[in-house]
Write a structure and sequence with these properties.
With 104 residues, the protein is mainly α. It contains four helices and no strands. It has a domain at 1-29 and 40-69. Helix content is 64%, strand content 0%. The mean pLDDT is 80.
Length: 104
């Protein structure tokens, strides 16, 4: 995987997330809310999250700013990502009580 491909995967993932989420968000907006729990604290926390998880990474992909985030691309991490994505490392396997007892 190259650096350009990694950036493209991130962008395509964000677009895919939006496409999957959009119809549900439209439906949810039509449902009336009896009492909203959104206060200033929640809006502030969501804004901080959006900046750190969305705006800064996309700003870096598009412009290269902030410079302190410029780290060398390490293709060796590709193996770790592939391992987890294919569920080879056991990170995402589900063990039941019977499988734990039999060792399978």
């Amino acid at each position: 995987m190259t650096e350009t491909l990694a950036k493209a995967v991130l962008l395509l993932g964000a677009v895919g997330w939006f496409v999957i989420r959009y119809p549900h968000q439209r439906r949810a907006r039509k449902t009336p809310v009896r009492k909203s729990a959104r206060d200033v604290r929640e809006i502030l926390l969501l804004s901080i999250s959006a900046v750190g998880l969305g705006i800064v990474p996309f700003l870096y992909i598009l412009t290269g700013v902030p410079r302190f985030a410029d780290r060398p691309f390490i293709p060796a991490l590709r193996g770790a990502a592939r391992c987890c994505s294919r569920r080879r490392c056991g990170c995402f396997t589900q063990r039941t009580a019977s499988s734990a007892a039999t060792g399978r």
